[in-house]
Write a structure and sequence with these properties.
Belongs to the UPF0225 family. This is UPF0225 protein SAMN04324258_4182. It comes from Krasilnikoviella flava. The protein has three helices and four strands. It has helices at about 20-25, 30-45, 50-55, and strands at about 70-80, 90-100, 105-120, 120-130. By secondary structure, the chain is α+β, with helices and mostly antiparallel strands. Helix content is about 20%, strand content about 35%. The protein has one domain: Nuclear Transport Factor 2, Chain: A. It binds zinc ion.
Length: about 130
Amino acid sequence: MLDSDRCPCGSGDTYGACCGPLHRGDRPAPTAEALMRSRYSAFAVGDAAYLGATWHPRTRPPSLELDDDQEWWRLTVLATHAGGPFDDGGEVEFVAQYRSASTGERGRLHEVSRFVREGGRWFYVDGDVGA
Ligand SMILES: [Zn+2]
């Protein structure tokens, strides 16, 4: 992904002005929503290391394998609760849409994700997956 490409998270910004600097560790996500968007983008570009680094140690899986066949093509943020620069926690409700590269079959993930901020950094904790 080039910095001049459209950011996968759908913010309308370029990757270099949106999730790119977060993936590279140039700056931390300022809000829970920004972290959520950058994690979605990490799925889209296949950055497993970033997903591990932004997963809270308490709930982080021992290893993370990304499915190469799954193409994440659209993110819609439905709602946010807290998660601002002065909060210690927050929630983001979103729908992420994907398709299988091999079969073209489409699917969607509707989740309310929970985040905490520790030491000035946001972490994904867990989420409730809905219909
Ligand atoms: Zn982005």
